[in-house]
Amino acid sequence: MATSNPGWDVIEEVGGSARMEALMRAFYDRLFDDLMIGFFFAMSDKEALIASQIDYVHAHIGSRQGDYQGPPIRQAHQKMPILVGHFDRRHQILIDVLDQFEVPPHVREAWLGLDRAMRDLVIRQGDQAREEMGYEVFRPKE
């Protein structure tokens, strides 16, 4: 999922540590408050998520100078019934926040590429998600 080493540091490119934290805080504030996906975050520690996401992004794009110690993406999300629409909503919020913070185009593209690469690791297909949530899945008789 990581990009090649392009010689730039993502934290410096967005304006330093304080600006990166402000960007992530804006992102997670929107995620927590979102009507479509906020329920995924209801029992989460926002501060821990912000710190972890900063480490993850820093370790996976740009010169990859960060040190991400969290669980693998698939493992961290495996118990969540994340559908395509949920993922797409989160991705759009990321786009909006990156635009709001006027992230440089090369950083924006690398960051969105990293985010898109997570898609197949976290989403569930409809039947799988419904079964995991305890809903009966309709199966036509053969």
Q: What is the compact description of this entry?
A:
It holds the Pfam family Bac_globin. Keywords: Heme, Iron, Metal-binding, Transport. With 142 residues, the protein is an all-alpha fold.
The topology string of helices and strands comes to HHHHHHHH
Rg (CA only): 16 Å
Oligomer: single chain
CATH architecture: Orthogonal Bundle
- Which fold name corresponds to the CATH topology? Globin-like
Label the overall shape. globular
Low-confidence stretches: none
Mean pLDDT: 85
Number of domains: 1
Helix content: 55-70%
Number of helices: 8
Provide the β-strand percentage band.
Answer: under 5%
Number of strands: 0
Biggest beta sheet attributes: none
User: CATH superfamily membership, which one?
Assistant: Globins
CATH C-level category = Mainly Alpha
Distance between the termini: 41 Å
Query: What structural category characterises the helix and strand content?
Result: mainly alpha
Protein name: Group 1 truncated hemoglobin
InterPro entries: Globin-like_sf, Globin/Proto, Hemoglobin_trunc
Keywords: Heme, Iron, Metal-binding, Transport
Organism: Lujinxingia vulgaris
